[in-house]
Amino acid sequence: MIKGRIHSIETMGLVDGPGIRVVVFFQGCKLRCAYCHNPDTWNESTGIEYTVDELVNKIKRFKSYFSTSGGGVTFSGGDPLRQPEFLLEVLKACKKEGIHTCLDTSGVGFGDYDEILKYTDLVLYDVKHLTEKGYLDMTGFKIDETNKFLEAVKRVGTKLWIRQVVLPGKTDSEDYMEDLKEFVDTLENVEKVELLPYHLLGVSKYENMNLKYRLDGVPAMDKEVCKELKDKYFSKY
User: Where is 230: in which H helix or E strand?
Assistant: First the structure.
């Protein structure tokens, strides 16, 4: 019996896809993003263990909210692609129940991405950085795997929401936004682009876990500047 490890479940998510959503945070992430606010999801061996039926039955309890709001379930993390076999079976079960499925992912996992995407209605794709050097600096990992996932998204034709954390001094320049716009224009099925202002809400977790926070001293991103960049470069989204 396939089992998965889940960090937590949010039952009334309003910012992780359309409508009211159940958000399931998977344990495990390969990346070590400089601005990660969920370092407690990195370890793949912790969390609460669920069978497919146990998790899907928990999600099904909220179907009444899905039907009235156009919502569904979003699998986040960590990164759900780090538990591909469990994720695939949960996705299949959700589709049998008529539940809208969404993946919030950096695209760095393993398994058959094409098969997983067949049961995925929407991908919230987290752009870390556009260049190989910038991506490695931001995440500690090479860009190759996330590019492999994007190619699978293109093949399957899954709908996309693009998400970019706007980090002062790294991804907040006009030049970077121009490059991001060019990148988005190469993708089909993009329904939305979200520029997410860097915040400091996760810093206390690093202190509690005795981890060094790589962006110590970097201020939170100005939300109004983010809005201006969105209006200038991605107004059609």
Answer: helix 223-233
